[in-house]
Amino acid sequence: MTLVGRRVRVRVPATSANLGPGFDTLGLALNVHDELDVEAIESGVEITVEGVGAGEVPTDETHLVARAALHAFDRLGVPAPGLRIHARNAIPHSRGMGSSGAAIVSGVLAAVGLVGDDVDVDDATVLRLATELEGHPDNVAPAIFGGLTIAWVDDDGPHHTELAVHRGVSLLVAVPQERMSTSLARSLQPADVPHADAVFNLSRAALLIAALTQTPGLLFAATEDRLHQRYRASAMPSTSRLVEALRAAGHAAVVSGAGPSVLVLSSDPEQRLAAAEIVAAQEDSWESHLLAVDIKGGTVEGNPR
Ligand code: HSE
């Protein structure tokens, strides 16, 4: 089989993981996207980037999209072609909005799309290939499937289920200038946590599913966390201050993913605008994005799977 000459267009959403109590488990797809045109060529990797990351990210086979595509070809047992990739990126990097998960999902979907009907690849395989590179499934699951996802891992690998978010929930993501490294954030986590904190998060995570799907009025109580945010606060003090200021005013604010962005889950659009005013009043410079849930997840066109 030669893939040379095949082309696909891949579009993958930003994501917000954890959502407060759902550490490494819950994720939400957001309507900000990276879009890539990928062509199979004879050899080599050629990458051009527009938008976020232009002039910063590598443009050879070490680029995360290319690495993910090459990983997918390898795991699918398909000889990898060369790749020509043009990326139009809108997802901010290192801000807790799932840019690395989106890049990994883009690469995997591009490889799957280029292979087309020559190899049968199901959704579970896409999730497994992406999770192998990302390390945890909470960003890649919503990036692939859209909506609100619950992801878990057992001896067979990662799994997920998708849920529709209640139409009364509106989203605000506040994005700071500074960046945060996920590996640094993860290094601040203790190996063990008190049993009482585990129970605390269990109750809030369970409640959060009800709040996001049925009863948005419960969002404030449902977004409390004792498993990750407090341990990471020293590494992102302005994030911590903003979450505190928003929660003190009754907004369901959490750290988005590993930070430093802040996600506010509002139960009505006016509440969201009030949250945006608090963000604008901060001394540090934050950009507020009024976002919606992406329900499509990652898409591939051209050589559809
Ligand atoms: N659950 C992950 C974390 C999301 O908080 O470390 C970021 O990749």
TrEMBL record:
InterPro entries in the cross-refs: GHMP_kinase_C_dom, GHMP_kinase_C_sf, GHMP_kinase_N_dom, GHMP_knse_ATP-bd_CS, Homoserine_kinase, Ribosomal_Su5_D2-typ_SF, Ribsml_uS5_D2-typ_fold_subgr
Location within or outside the cell: Cytoplasm
Keyword Cytoplasm: yes
GO cellular component: cytoplasm
Residues covered by the GHMP kinase N-terminal domain: 64-147
Known pathway: Amino-acid biosynthesis; L-threonine biosynthesis; L-threonine from L-aspartate: step 4/5
Chief location: cytoplasm
Domain of life per record: Bacteria
Keywords associated with the record: Amino-acid biosynthesis, ATP-binding, Cytoplasm, Kinase, Nucleotide-binding, Threonine biosynthesis, Transferase
Family of the protein in this entry: Belongs to the GHMP kinase family. Homoserine kinase subfamily.
Protein name: Homoserine kinase
